[in-house]
Amino acid sequence: MDRIERIREFLKASPGDNFLRHALALEYIKTGNDAGARKLFEEILTGSPEYVGSYYHLAKLLERVNEPALAMEWYEKGMDAAKKAGDQHSYNELQSAYDELI
C-alpha cells in the first residue's frame, strides 16, 4: 500500500483530521496532483483558519501554478493566523516567502 492509500485509510476513521489531510495534500504535490492538494489545503484553511502549517504550502502551490496575487493573499492570511497563534517561526517563514514574491 502506498503512502496516499495509507493516509486515505486513516482518514476514513478520522475524516476531519487536519494533520492527515495536510499530509495527504503534501503527497498529492509530490505526485503532481496540484488540484487535489489545493482543494485539501483550501478545505483545511476554510474550516480551520488557525491551522497555520497549510498556508505556506497552499501559497507556494499557487505561486507554482502562476497565481501570484492569490498566493500573496494566502501568505497574508497565514501571517495573520501565525501572529494570532503566537507562532513566530511560521510568521517569519510566511513573511520571507511573501517578500520574495513581491
Question: Are there runs of 5+ residues with pLDDT below 50, and where?
Answer: none
**Beta-strand proportion:** under 5%
Named CATH architecture: Alpha Horseshoe
**How many domain regions?**
1
Structural class: mainly alpha
The termini sit apart by: 42 Å
CATH superfamily: Tetratricopeptide repeat domain
Largest sheet: none
Q: What coarse outline follows from CA principal-axis ratios?
A: globular
Number of DSSP helical runs: 6
Output the CATH topology.
Answer: Serine Threonine Protein Phosphatase 5, Tetratricopeptide repeat
Q: Give the class-level CATH name.
A: Mainly Alpha
Structure description:
- With 102 residues, the chain is mainly alpha-helical.
- It has a single domain, classed as Serine Threonine Protein Phosphatase 5, Tetratricopeptide repeat (Alpha Horseshoe).
- Helix content is 80%, strand content 0%.
- It has six helices and no strands.
- It has helices at residues 3-13, 18-30, 34-47, 53-64, 68-85, 88-101.
- Helix 1 packs antiparallel against helix 2 (18-30), helix 2 packs antiparallel against helix 3 (34-47) and helix 5 packs antiparallel against helix 6 (88-101).
